[in-house]
Amino acid sequence: MSFPLLTATAVLPAAGAVLTAAVPAGRRTAAKWLALLVSLGTLVLAAVVTVRFEPGGARYQLTESHAWIADFGVRYELGVDGIGVALIALTALLIPFIVAAGWNDADEPAATATRRWRPTQGFFALILMVEAMVILSFEATDVFLFYLLFEAMLIPMYFLIGGFGDRAHAGSDEHAAAQRSYAAVKFLLYNLIGGLIMLAAVVGLYAVAGNFSLPGIVEARASGDLTMATSTERLLFLGFFFAFAVKAPLWPLHTWLPNAMGEATAPVAVLITAVVDKVGTFAMLRFCLQLFPEASRWATPVIVVLALVSIVYGALLAVGQRDIKRLVAYASISHFGFIVLGIFAMTSQGQSGATLYMVNHGISTAVLMLVAGFLISRRGSRLIADYGGVQKVAPVLAGTFLIGSLATLSLPGLAPFVSEFLVLVGTFARYPAAGIVATTGIVLAALYTLVLYQRTMTGPVKEDVRAVKDLRPRELLVVAPLIALLFFLGVFPKPLTEIVDPAVRHTMSDVKQQDPRPEVEAAK
Amino acid sequence: MENLIALLVAAPLLGAAVLLCGGRRLDAAGHWLGTLLAAASFVVAAVLFFGMLGRGAEDRALHQTLYTWVPVESFRADLAFQLDQLSMTFVLLITGVGTLIHVYSIGYMEHDERRRRFFGYLNLFLAAMLLLVLADNYLLLYFGWEGVGLASYLLIGFWQHKPSAATAAKKAFLVNRVGDIGLSIAIMLMFTTFGTFAFGPVLATADKASEGTLTAIGLMLLLAACGKSAQVPLQSWLGDAMEGPTPVSALIHAATMVTAGVYLITRSGAIFDAAPTAQTAVVTVGAVTLLFGAIVGCAKDDIKKALAGSTMSQIGYMVLAAGLGPIGYAFAIMHLVTHGFFKAGLFLGAGSVMHGMNDEVDMRKYGGLRAYMPVTFVTFGLGYLAIIGFPGLSGFWSKDKIIEAAFAKGGTEGWILGAVTLLGAGITAYYMTRVMIMTFFGEKRWQPAPDPHRAPDVEPAAADDGRHLAAGPVGSPAAEGPAGHPAGELPDPHESPRSMTVPMIVLAFGSVFAGGLFSINSAFVHWLEPVTRFEHGHPPVSAAVITTATLVVLLAGAGLAYAQYGRRPVPVTAPRGSLLTRAARRDLLQDDFNHVVLVRGGEHLTRSLVYVDHTLVDGVVNGTAASVGGLSGRLRKLQNGYARSYAVSMFGGTAVLIAATLLMRAV
């Protein structure tokens, strides 16, 4: 038996979480370094997974399979396709930056520190725990195993949101605590309800198929050994899709996200939108389309409309925000609309674009949100109106914020352009009207990012902004590699598309869809 | 030879990267590095040009493929360059004028502490603009297209501590993005129609597609061109863009970037030729903008905004010519090149005047400057003669051909277009004579320098009336420049340093001779013919009659301006003016329309959506959640705490699952 590489990528951060939590109260710096080292070790393992993965090889690679609850057909089954590899790489890449960016976020003021209360250790242990669960959920090919992880990751997320809020708060401490607790509970309830509905669908799937193996069920369906009544398939599809649409989040199930991202610290907000939410869109591609191809095609028109609403609605609400972090949250809702649109356009450009979009959105939002977090921690306010003229006093901070903004509006040359254009062209090829509506999103994205930049960074320097210091070396070290990556993937996305494309080809054949043919066959 | 093409882009790109990331260590030498790399690009362009001349006319295009940029199934975009005669023309213009303006900026930006960054942005612009004209497919063109938009955004907002500059920059980017919708959709249409968006296959098989599709592609390309080239209805950003430093106005907002729309239409000629409806739309846009820009140019007292109106109008000529098809493409590009010389020269002259006049931009506060700035006066004067089409100078050759081609369109359309281009020539003579007289002739109307401590967005009392009502950034016409001047002192006009006057002199040479040289044996037309194709237009009246008519309207326009501004004193405060004058001062109310409909309307929309999201969407979903959550509410009473109640739900759920599976097995 070969080395269980996939298991290792999840066990390392999980074990790291336990160790970090066990670091004694007085040694919080040690806990930080431990967490950083573990996350870097996980990144190395993820790199090995990426290198070992052969794009032209079998659909699921590096597979592991063990009997688990034999009586119910539950197995511990892991395997990655190209889409999974891309998202594991994204997760493993972002966590070290999240840890480094949140270096001091959980440090309690000395006065309130006690021997027993160890917030710093807890903060980093929870982040590592989330990482372990997210990575394993990208690897699970057993539906039940996936469900357990999908739900279990809510618990550390709940404590991260509710326990470690943004210190920059307009109201009193009690008010801040109440807001935070509201956001955490809202996050939990929304995802819990989605999860419970999915649970019903998981049970239903078992009733029909008799096991939980994703490749097994897909193969049985393709060969005709397993048939589903149309209504059954549709109901099961809706059960799965609902849970993923809450997590993604899709309009109108999105309202938990601005609360959660607004109240959480900036690194945790990145963790939510750039990492955890990707499990939702990933699962749409992996479970909804593969298990229920006919139902997916049946539901496509409605989902495309919901995705379009998300794009335009999220962007318009971003324009109307007065809080920097809530603005980024609504921008993410708009971007998740693009991802869902790409998935359900059912073209290879759309689905490749959607997968690239998941990765690129993770990186670009991390840059924007982390720099915003650095700025907010300096001035102690999340309100856009409290800023002005920052570029005069902190040009490097303003410059990185501008690059994050330009990535968010998908400027060519930066990674998000490639994915956004692929999603648009993939959508347009199938549904021209939807493609045109989605294209208007590029103007709205320019509006909310550049208005934010103008109001915070340009103009005369506001009195309270004068003392804002430029980025510290640690902070620059956090954003510079991410920015470099945005440029690299913007001009050379091939390493990513090479891995993703074969997986998309498989999914396209699962849903029995082919790309529309061009009207005129141009001379090549 | 073809391996040199990438160097054209790489040199300024390297400059941008080094200057923008290099930090303060490069402050002392940054401007030299930037200028050197721009010049290097020009040298490479010259080498490629002479190499191209050495080959036969049909054999001149070069290709260089670096690698595949986006490879996804059938969607394939290469990072590949195509250098043919059309691209070559642009490359020479961009690198040539670009280098001159780098040199000029060394002096102009001398006192700016962020000069290194300015040169970084200028280099970035050159790289993006060269990418735009060298791309061999529409997606890569789009890359350059948005790249120049970014450079333009950064440079308009270069003095971003001024709210008016920051607003103008944002506005320019946003309006351009509306145009970019057009380019995006055009590329998508090409992909679904031809399966590719590379120039070669698309343009070669364009006639096989249905006319409806081609019309749609053409209209979308036109929308893109309207945004980038400030054509009606997307013209509103160009006037505000004058907030940028004057070298930027000369390079980006006069000579090169704003002509990208003309390039796009000319490059896509094969599509437009097969879509007459789209062509009609192109000439209509060109004709309307030609008059629109000219009328606005007549009313502005801000020298840069008057020139900006003129730029719109001249690009209107080019767009109109490009819409005429093979009888017009070559002349559109020829006017584009000559305009590049004389308009860049005029802007640099305006910058030189401002440099000597405490950064004052209001022409009502100029007057009599010819004696104080002789070089500026002569070079600006030659640019002036060129733009109004004085016989023998560059503008005469290129504009006259466009007027002839417009008449040659034939039918009623031809007469209308011909009349519009003639009328435009008259108005051009009027507003340019007005600028010339107000600036260099008449009595001195100089005013003390504005108070530098005054809030920059407060309008001076003498500004155009009604402007404070105009939407968007109107800015103060009196506060350009980073360097504050002592308040209350009269300006001390002086000639600008050599680094500024030499580029002006070089451009003046181009303004005088380029058109004539291009016209010897129709050299320019023959040069472009393999790319753009050329047909002789046959105007319904002889060319001599048209030329005579042009000269008559020219004299009429210039004479009217002389009568109004030369023979009477110019008031320092603008008179109220007629209804048309007042509307023209406010860009023919376009900004007011935008403000009421788009800005106000948009604000109401977003504000009500925020309310709806907070109460309705959240409320309904929460309400549903609450009724379901009632269950966990009861659990909470037992367990105390959400997380625990959640854990219970989850374990309960799992228990249900296990029970269900057991049951299933039993059955």
UniProtKB/TrEMBL annotation, chain A:
It is an enzyme of class 1 (oxidoreductase). Its EC number is 1.6.5.11. One of its GO terms (molecular function) is oxidoreductase activity. Keywords: Membrane, Oxidoreductase, Transmembrane, Transmembrane helix. It is a multi-pass membrane protein. InterPro entries: NADH_Q_OxRdtase_chainM/4, NADH_UbQ_OxRdtase, ND/Mrp_TM. The chain crosses the membrane at residues 30-51, 83-103, 123-150, 187-209, 235-256, 268-292, 298-320, 327-346, 358-376, 396-419, 431-453, 474-492. Residues 140-444 form the NADH:quinone oxidoreductase/Mrp antiporter transmembrane domain. Pfam families: Proton_antipo_M. PANTHER family: NADH-UBIQUINONE OXIDOREDUCTASE CHAIN 4 (PTHR43507:SF1). Belongs to the complex I subunit 4 family. This is NADH-quinone oxidoreductase subunit M.
UniProtKB/TrEMBL annotation, chain B:
Residues 469-495 are annotated as: Disordered. The keyword Transferase does not apply. Keywords: Membrane, Transmembrane, Transmembrane helix. It holds the Pfam family Proton_antipo_N. The chain crosses the membrane at residues 31-54, 89-106, 118-135, 181-203, 209-227, 248-266, 278-299, 315-334, 369-394, 414-432, 505-528, 540-563, 646-664. The keyword Cytoplasm does not apply. The lineage of its organism: Bacteria, Bacillati, Actinomycetota, Actinomycetes, Kitasatosporales. It is found in: Endomembrane system; Membrane. Residues 69-119 form the NADH-Ubiquinone oxidoreductase (complex I) chain 5 N-terminal domain. Residues 135-420 form the NADH:quinone oxidoreductase/Mrp antiporter transmembrane domain. Residues 475-490 have a biased composition (Low complexity). It is a multi-pass membrane protein. InterPro entries: NADHpl_OxRdtase_5_subgr, ND/Mrp_TM, NU5C-like, Proton_antipo_N. This is NADH-quinone oxidoreductase subunit L.
